[in-house]
Design goal:
125 residues; mainly beta; four-stranded antiparallel beta sheet; three-stranded antiparallel beta sheet; 2 helices; 50% strand
């Protein structure tokens, strides 16, 4: 990587500078339904079920859980997991049942400049 020219580092895989990754707006977040819990017989793995109620795809890159003892645990999803429009996906992380106080997921989507709609940056729209 060190031998690559600097201009190669600026390459945009989407071929256009008008598509950017943005955080979901408050109104978009209201259309994302998240359920969290543990499967029967597994008290160690917290499962997140995300339902994307938006027309376009979103992606989630991290989860953070605040524990009852005041500590926090987090997980980075590498790569970020994608949820197509009007679809459901699951993700998980290690959290002992009964220790969770609150949780949050970090999600975003791609938008064209000047547009409010989440799009798939790999499709020519």
């Amino acid at each position: 990587m060190l031998a690559m020219p600097i201009c190669a580092l600026a390459w945009n895989p989407f071929g256009s500078d008008d598509v950017t990754e943005v955080a979901l707006s408050k109104s978009e977040l209201q259309k994302i339904k998240v359920n969290a819990g543990w499967a029967k017989g597994d008290d160690q793995t917290l499962i997140f079920e995300l339902v994307n109620g938006l027309k376009g795809p979103i992606q989630c890159g991290a989860a953070n859980v605040d524990l009852n003892d005041g500590k926090s645990v987090g997980k980075q999803f590498v790569p970020k997991f994608a949820i197509p429009g009007n679809a459901t996906r699951n993700a998980s992380m290690n959290v002992v049942k009964g220790t969770m106080k609150a949780y949050a997921l970090t999600c975003s989507c791609f938008k064209r400049k000047g547009s409010d709609e989440c799009i798939n940056p790999l499709k020519n729209q």
